[in-house]
Design a protein that fits this description.
- The chain is of the alpha+beta class and about 625 residues long.
- The protein has 25 helices and 15 strands.
- The chain has a seven-stranded mixed β-sheet, with helices on both faces. A two-stranded antiparallel sheet has the order 3-11. Strands 5-6 form a two-stranded antiparallel ribbon.
- InterPro entries: Plavaka.
- It holds the Pfam family Plavaka.
Length: about 625
């Protein structure tokens, strides 16, 4: 059934061409002066039917007549003893960001609101882990929106200068990871820029400056995420494919190792997940888990000390970085930040190189083992091979109890053979936090699913679109407000494009839903093309379907079981088929049920084709 499109579907633009030209100018990054020179060509605007004559009038339409995803706010933070040293924070309401993500019509059919349990066999003894189902089941009492937060400081300048940005990203576990990872899908929202100003107050020791950095970070992140506390407890209404009440719960916090310590208030050099001391990180087993209650108890107990130095020392004695009196995650429902924090990937792999891309790192890993064969002892080769096995297995988009067993075996083999590097004098010990973090990967995958749900590599790619391109579009002076303005205009064009998508495709989506609901197996009937009817004997002979006539008679007889006309097996063998020809289908399409979301994003249908008989080869 076709749906009539509104006459003013392109408003505030006059025509489709008017909108397409504006979309091209904004998305391609055409400079305002270049666009003014283009529109100044005589009769260009009139012949194209444009509703704007220059870049200023175009931006005025974008700024005033297209709603924005979430409004930007700004605030200055300062310390009580240094009010003149202000730290500028820009942020957006995370609840508005969540509403826009769940209300995106392009993702309406992909969003998930309830967890599942998937197994590899009917005995249900081999569970599949590809999404954060286990965590989801632990908090599911209503519709939950698992909130994934990521922070990562990035450098904006390339060759000179020290300009940097500290973006805060938000995405949701309801959206499949195959969609979240693609910047073109716009399933990740920038909700804030933290302050990057240095602590300049004179007279501060190194420890005091570090403590102030921690306090500023926790105060800033809490100010941005505080609306999630009430919404997590009471819920909020969102409009997507329908109107429903959801509870946004902070599920994952993605960060590299230094920020993991900053977020969890863990002493640098220790594990932010367990209480293993810095001198025992090379052990084969993890220590007792850190918890939010334990960290808060250490801080509260030390806060009764007489001086700030005593407070700091008491916290550090228990491997807690004592720079913060109030942590940003206090009060968040179902949130334990030691559990939420996700493991860091090996950014530089096994190489000490400081500048290396992800593609180069992967290429080096492909040839590393072959280059070392014959140059190192057998035990060292086994250790490196097992570590590479661990890295590759950890990247599986879907895991099961079996693959997690492979992961544990690879790590066990590494620990059994790593002592050779100490014997050869390569290292004195393996008290390295990133190596220790490998002990927690299995628990993470069981709890939050495959690592592509929360790896830092995904969010580092967003720096290009949401920080670096925005900075390049500014004049590099007081750039933060300019960056948010540019980013808002880019998001508005994307949002308007999604609106056009929903208008154009809602009739198609309704037709597809009707076909899928009418087909119990998910077969797309419209895609099936039968051959002309063929006699039953011809089908049995030409298509090598031995026993076809017998089987179809038994099938038809079973359909009327218990009704008049039902026959015994002997009667069926001598009965005649009530028709003498059938349609023969050479192929059909069905919608498969995928265990992971990678395949579902790229393969909508599975095509099954019949192979014709040729040269004596059976079909």
């Amino acid at each position: 059934m076709d749906v009539d499109l509104p006459d003013n579907r392109w408003a505030p633009f006059s025509t489709e061409l008017d909108w397409k030209f504006a979309h091209w100018a904004l998305q391609e990054g055409i400079g305002q002066k270049s666009l003014d020179r283009l529109l100044a060509i005589p009769e260009l605007s009139q012949r194209l039917g444009l509703s704007y004559q220059n870049s200023r009038s175009l931006l005025k339409i974008i700024d005033s007549k297209i709603p924005e995803r979430a409004k930007w706010h700004s605030k200055y933070l300062h310390f009580d003893d240094c009010p003149e040293e202000k730290h500028f924070i820009q942020y957006r309401d995370p609840l508005q960001a969540i509403t826009s993500l769940l209300g995106n019509p392009a993702h309406a059919t992909d969003i998930v609101y309830k967890p599942s349990r998937i197994f590899t066999n009917s005995n249900r003894d081999d569970c599949i882990f590809n999404k954060m189902w286990k965590w989801w089941h632990s908090v599911q009492g209503a519709s939950v929106a698992p909130v994934i937060i990521a922070t990562d400081k990035t450098q904006l300048t390339q060759f000179s200068g020290d300009k940097s940005a500290y973006p805060v990203y938000l995405t949701l576990g309801n959206i499949p990871s195959s969609i979240r990872r693609k910047p073109s899908q716009h399933a990740c929202v920038l909700i804030g820029y933290l302050s990057v100003n240095k602590m300049v107050k004179k007279g501060l020791t190194t420890k005091e400056k570090t403590a102030r950095v921690q306090r500023l970070f926790h105060a800033s992140v809490r100010m941005i995420l505080e609306p999630l506390i009430e919404a997590g407890h009471k819920g909020m209404e969102v409009t997507g494919g329908d109107v429903r009440k959801i509870h946004p719960i902070l599920a994952c916090y993605v960060a590299d190792y230094p920020e993991q310590c900053l977020v969890t208030c863990s002493k640098y050099g220790t594990c932010p997940k367990c209480r293993c001391p810095a001198t025992d990180l090379e052990n084969k087993a993890a220590g007792e888990p850190r918890t939010s209650d334990w960290t808060l108890s250490v801080i509260n107990q030390a806060s009764s000390s007489n001086s700030r130095r005593e407070f700091f020392d008491q916290c550090m004695d228990k491997d807690v970085s004592g720079g913060v009196y109030r942590l940003f995650w206090e009060g968040f429902p179902y949130c334990d930040n030691h559990l939420c924090i996700t493991p860091d990937h090996f950014k530089n792999g096994l190489s000490p190189l400081s500048q290396i891309s992800g593609g180069e790192r992967k290429d080096m890993a492909k040839i590393l083992l072959g280059c070392l064969v014959g140059k190192l002892p057998k035990q060292a080769i086994i250790a490196i091979r097992s570590l590479l096995d661990f890295i590759y297995i950890a990247q599986y988009p879907t895991h099961s109890d079996t693959t997690l067993g492979y992961l544990s075996d690879a790590l066990k083999t590494f620990h059994q053979n790593k002592a050779i590097f100490v014997t050869l004098g390569v290292r004195e010990n393996f008290n390295i936090p990133k190596f220790h973090s490998l002990l927690h990967y299995v628990d993470f995958i069981r709890w939050f699913g495959a690592t592509n749900n929360y790896n830092t590599e995904m969010f580092e790619h967003f720096h290009i679109d949401m920080a670096k391109d925005a900075w390049r579009a500014s004049n590099h002076r007081n750039e933060c407000p300019q960056m948010t303005t540019w980013l808002t205009r880019q998001e508005k064009t994307v949002w308007f494009e999604c609106y056009q998508f929903s208008l154009q495709n809602r009739s198609v989506l309704r037709q597809q839903d009707t076909l899928q609901n009418s087909s119990g197996l998910g077969i797309n009937i419209a895609k099936v093309s039968p051959l002309p009817q063929q006699p039953l004997q011809s089908i049995q002979q030409n298509h090598q379907c031995h026993g076809f006539i017998r089987d179809i008679k038994e099938f038809l007889n079973r359909l009327i079981h218990g009704q008049p006309g039902y026959m015994s097996r002997n009667q069926v063998n001598i009965a005649n088929v009530p028709f003498d020809s059938l349609d023969v289908f050479t192929s059909f399409k069905l919608t498969p049920i995928h265990l992971g979301d990678n395949a579902s994003a790229s393969v909508k249908y599975k095509v099954i084709k019949a192979r014709p008989r040729s040269k004596g080869i059976a079909p």
